[in-house]
């Protein structure tokens, strides 16, 4: 479960980014690195550590999850590769909370895992510490010492380059009993105080003394933060199942040296120490840079400005009680929008700005349709099978309210049919000219979980994303499972190529003060936060650059504003 270092590092915006909620301009962006030191406090049990960062709202004072690291297994001294990227406001007190858990299963529900401790601090406290390095004790468990957490902050540069490298090694140390090694590499960048911060781990190459690691990509600012002469340390380990990885050797280099590419300058004699010398009779072993390439890291706006089109499809879960009764989530209160309408309005008012004609196909699922009472898991809200498009958010809301008067809400609730339907259109335009976003607003009930997981796995290789907003007070365990932030979704042994699902529970955004404008702004911000990175991940996986001129997309080839769904 380790790795995926670039998942969060790639999702960085420009430094001077306006925040519409606070009205402030961040002074800069900072990267927070996290390490824990449990010592002998948790022995003898091995632990699978996970760190979760929470931020506190300025007005509500509520703690909201900001992000999670990867899970690191079998170590009492985890150094997390995945970083947190935060906007830093000098004039604000930015309260942070770091919770540490021992992960016991694949469940995303934290209540099912062991709490190891927590610490509270401010972002300013980390930045203002000597060398921007803050070490604090972990607490939260009465009468128990939980170890320490080390938080390091570094201001991010503006370099947008991304480097791709590949290494190999020869005649590695035979650490294992049967004369083979399972080597992997760990990359660190140096800090101003002489310490090092982990920035990448390669995969483990099993049963070999002559490994060739897969090429990997990493942002230059993650590797050296734009300082080409900054020292980069590389350590090589032999992987062990129990987490006690054996040290093979290390070497140091820099971005400037690596940029020379495959040459005599990038063959590194790795010092293996006295133990390596006694076992092998060698003083060092060669590690070779096989390839090095660098290209500009394209942003979401690069693709939008180049004419790539976002195409949004709206989907409502209909099965949720009689809409004429106040107990239904679809209840039409003459004085206040229901949860479905509020969620649509919050997200829709942002996404409609990226659609030139403001015409959106809007569907419902889980209802009996007139005149014969046929059960449908995919029907147009406006009742027009040939043209399900609605004019803007107001048009969708009008069609939604009208459909509640004409259809009979009915289960079961099946997600797979409509996901597969949108996927068929996305499959016709894999050139990147159009990117599809399916917005599903649902009560959390799902009747075809296995089929839905299979549909998402198949859709992950297509230019599409899925946003799920859960309304009501139901348990959303199934929805959380579909969101692959922590555990990539799989079906029939096949792992999704990308994480394309973002889930948020609507109830977490109900402002206790009654300020629905502010709470809906937060909902929209969180629910749409992953779309830019998901679009970029698709474009990168297919080698599509912003300035590529896509072929002419006719209605037969893709989904145009006049085609039906």
TrEMBL record:
Q: Which Pfam families match?
A: C2, Copine
Domain (C2) ranges: 130-268
Quote one Gene Ontology molecular function term. Answer: metal ion binding
What's a single GO CC term here? plasma membrane
- Report the domain of life of the source organism: Eukaryota
Under the heading InterPro entries, the entry gives:
C2_dom, C2_domain_sf, C2B_Copine, Copine, Copine_C, VWF_A, vWFA_dom_sf
Protein name (Swiss-Prot/TrEMBL) = C2 domain-containing protein
Q: Which organism is it from?
A: Pygocentrus nattereri (Red-bellied piranha)
């Amino acid at each position: 479960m380790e790795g995926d270092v670039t998942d969060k590092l790639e999702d960085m915006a420009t430094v001077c980014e306006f925040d519409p909620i606070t009205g402030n301009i961040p002074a800069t962006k900072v990267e927070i690195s996290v390490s824990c030191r449990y010592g002998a406090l948790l022995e003898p049990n091995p632990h699978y550590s996970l760190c979760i960062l929470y931020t506190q709202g300025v007005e509500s004072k509520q703690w909201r999850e900001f992000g999670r690291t990867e899970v690191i297994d079998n170590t009492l001294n985890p150094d997390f590769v995945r970083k947190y990227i935060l906007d830093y406001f000098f004039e604000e007190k930015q309260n942070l909370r770091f919770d540490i858990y021992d992960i016991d299963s694949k469940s995303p529900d934290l209540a099912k895992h062991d709490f190891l401790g927590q610490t509270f601090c401010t972002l300013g406290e980390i930045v203002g510490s000597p060398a921007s390095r803050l070490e604090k004790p972990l607490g939260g468990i009465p009468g128990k010492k939980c170890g320490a957490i080390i938080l390091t902050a570094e201001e991010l540069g503006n370099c947008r380059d991304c480097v791709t490298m590949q290494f190999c090694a020869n005649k590695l140390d035979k650490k294992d009993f049967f004369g083979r090694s399972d080597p992997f590499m760990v990359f660190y960048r140096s800090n101003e105080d002489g310490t090092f911060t982990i920035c990448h781990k390669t995969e483990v190459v099993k049963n070999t003394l002559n490994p060739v690691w897969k090429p990997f990509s990493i942002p230059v600012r993650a590797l050296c933060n734009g300082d080409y002469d900054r020292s980069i340390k590389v350590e090589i380990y032999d992987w062990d199942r129990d987490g006690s990885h054996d040290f093979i050797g290390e070497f140091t280099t820099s971005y400037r040296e690596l940029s020379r590419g495959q040459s005599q300058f990038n063959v590194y004699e790795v010092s293996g120490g006295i133990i390596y010398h006694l076992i092998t009779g060698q003083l060092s072993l060669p590690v070779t840079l096989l390839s090095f390439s660098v290209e500009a890291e394209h942003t979401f706006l690069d693709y939008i400005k180049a004419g790539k089109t976002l195409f949004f499809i709206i989907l409502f879960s209909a099965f949720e009680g009689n809409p004429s009764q106040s107990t239904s989530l679809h209840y039409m209160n003459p004085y206040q929008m229901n949860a479905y309408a509020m969620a649509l309005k919050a997200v829709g008012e942002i996404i409609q700005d990226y659609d030139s004609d403001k015409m959106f196909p809007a569907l419902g699922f889980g209802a009996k349709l007139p005149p014969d009472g046929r059960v449908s898991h995919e029907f147009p809200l406006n009742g027009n099978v040939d043209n399900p498009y609605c004019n803007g958010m107001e048009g969708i809301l009008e069609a939604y309210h009208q459909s509640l008067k004409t259809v009979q809400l009915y289960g079961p609730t099946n997600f797979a049919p409509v996901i597969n339907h949108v996927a068929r259109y996305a499959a016709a335009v894999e050139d990147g000219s159009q990117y599809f976003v399916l917005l599903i607003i649902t009560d959390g009930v799902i009747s075809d979980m296995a089929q839905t997981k299979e549909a998402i796995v198949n859709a992950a290789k297509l230019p599409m994303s899925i946003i799920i907003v859960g309304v009501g007070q139901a348990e959303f365990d199934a929805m959380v499972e579909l969101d692959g932030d922590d555990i990539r979704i799989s079906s029939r042994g096949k792992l999704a190529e990308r994480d394309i699902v973002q889930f948020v529970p609507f109830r977490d955004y109900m402002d206790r003060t009654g300020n629905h404008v502010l709470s809906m702004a937060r909902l929209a911000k969180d629910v749409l936060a992953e779309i830019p990175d998901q679009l970029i991940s698709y474009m990168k996986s297919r080698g599509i650059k912003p300035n590529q001129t896509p072929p002419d997309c006719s209605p037969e080839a893709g989904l145009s504003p006049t085609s039906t769904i």
